[in-house]
């Protein structure tokens, strides 16, 4: 995945996640919002075939890029857990 940071200042980051659609962006913003240090997490896809722009703002001085990384790690862990459960059920 290729990203482009459009704006970064203190408690705010705006970035483009190239090639992503609503499915991933919905999961990512929901996971970001589960962090109590997050104030805003939203994305917009301006045109049907444009890349989504993600906006994250935080409170309590937490780095918004760290919030995004932590959310991605939690999503990865959930997917790994699901893969293991599916493997366990199919190898019986």
Automatic annotation (TrEMBL):
Catalyzed chemical reaction(s): RNA(n) + a ribonucleoside 5'-triphosphate = RNA(n+1) + diphosphate
Family: Belongs to the archaeal Rpo11/eukaryotic RPB11/RPC19 RNA polymerase subunit family.
EC number: 2.7.7.6
Cross-referenced InterPro entries: RBP11-like (IPR036603), RBP11-like_dimer (IPR009025), Rpo11-like (IPR022905)
SUPFAM superfamilies reported for this sequence: RBP11-like subunits of RNA polymerase (SSF55257)
Domain DNA-directed RNA polymerase RBP11-like dimerisation: from-to ranges: 13-84
Organism of derivation: Methanofollis liminatans DSM 4140
GO CC term (a single one): DNA-directed RNA polymerase complex
GO terms classed as biological process: DNA-templated transcription
Location, primary (coarse class): cytoplasm
Cell location: Cytoplasm
Protein name: DNA-directed RNA polymerase subunit Rpo11
EC category name: transferase
Function per UniProt: DNA-dependent RNA polymerase (RNAP) catalyzes the transcription of DNA into RNA using the four ribonucleoside triphosphates as substrates.
């Amino acid at each position: 995945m290729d990203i482009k940071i459009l704006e970064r200042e203190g408690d705010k980051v705006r970035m483009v996640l190239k090639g992503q659609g609503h499915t991933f962006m919905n999961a990512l913003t929901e996971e970001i919002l589960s962090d109590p240090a997050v104030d805003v997490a939203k994305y917009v896809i301006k045109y049907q075939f444009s890349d989504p722009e993600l906006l994250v703002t935080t409170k309590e001085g937490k780095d918004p890029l760290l919030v995004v990384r932590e959310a991605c790690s939690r999503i990865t862990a959930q997917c790994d857990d699901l893969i293991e459960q599916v493997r366990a059920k199919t190898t019986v």
